[in-house]
Write a structure and sequence with these properties.
two-stranded antiparallel ribbon, mainly alpha
Length: 111
């Protein structure tokens, strides 16, 4: 079969672009529930979370959350998503971050 001899993807994927911050579920998986908002802030407040406006410190996001206690993981995730909004997360600029985009020099990726 001729298709077996081809190398690389059949579809051009574009440049690899880094995304700053952690997804909300990755952070909330580190906790045990029920948990107080202040305890979430104490344990994870300095972590960066992905938002549609770019990465934000989780402690800053928690300031906009009114609930003082989260009995379940889903409750915390819903509150965080309500605070940061929903939408696409911007990726970094591959021109300014060549190491994060796959370890190649910016000149090597230009054609």
């Amino acid at each position: 079969m001729a298709d077996d001899d081809e190398e690389g993807p059949a579809v051009e994927l574009g440049e690899r672009r880094p995304v700053e911050g952690a997804p909300i579920p990755r952070l909330t998986a580190r906790l045990h529930y029920g948990i107080e908002r202040s305890e979430v802030d104490r344990r994870l407040g300095d972590e960066q979370v992905r938002t549609p406006e770019g990465p934000r410190r989780l402690g800053e996001v928690l300031e906009a959350v009114e609930e003082p206690y989260f009995p379940r993981r889903q409750d915390l995730e819903r509150a965080l998503r309500d605070a940061v909004g929903r939408g696409p997360v911007p990726a970094g600029d591959p021109e300014t971050e060549p190491e994060a985009a796959g370890g190649e020099d910016a000149e090597a990726t230009e054609e």
